[in-house]
Amino acid sequence: MGNLMMKFKVEEIHLASRIGSGTLDVLGTPALIGFMEKTASSYAKTLVSQEKTTVGTKIEMEHLKPSKLDDEIEIEIFPENINDKTMFFKITAYCHSEIVGKASHTRAVIDILKFKEKNNLF
């Protein structure tokens, strides 16, 4: 199990002023969390069968430095504990080679059909 790194460009839809999480034109914390979850979800998808998927159940994140419009954010995933029920990741976000965020993230492994039936999602 290796690490995975994904890159994202900060666009207007990711700005705190646009999301409503703040008033400045900087990367909003909800968008940074979204980048982290997308990277974790992409990694997790490679580890489960086609009948299963993962859903995020917990994230603890520190947003350490601002990033601006058009900056490139690199998200690196470090798998810590992977089993058939849960996946736990450490995540680091970089901008211009500096750490801008850190997180720990848990995902639950679920059976897609059972999840949809249980939650009336058809």
H and E string: EHHEEEEH
Q: Would you identify the regions where 5 or more consecutive residues have pLDDT less than 50?
A: none
- Main beta-sheet annotation: 5 strands, antiparallel
The level 1 CATH classification is Alpha Beta
Distance between the termini: 34 Å
Percentage beta strand: 35-45%
What's the alpha carbon Rg, rounded to whole Å?
15 Å
- How many structural domains does the protein architecture include? 1
Structural class: alpha+beta
CATH topology type:
Thiol Ester Dehydrase, Chain A
The counted number of beta strands is 5
Which features characterize this protein?
122 residues, 3 helices, Thiol Ester Dehydrase, Chain A, alpha+beta, single chain
Structure commentary:
- The protein is an alpha+beta fold and 122 residues long.
- Helices cover 23% and strands 43% of the residues.
- It has a single domain, classed as Thiol Ester Dehydrase, Chain A.
- The protein is built from three helices and five strands.
- The longest helix has 17 residues, at 29-45.
Task: Write a brief structural summary.
The protein is of the alpha+beta class and 122 residues long. It has helices at 16-19, 29-45, 112-118; strands at 4-9, 52-63, 72-82, 86-95, 98-111. It has a five-stranded antiparallel beta sheet.
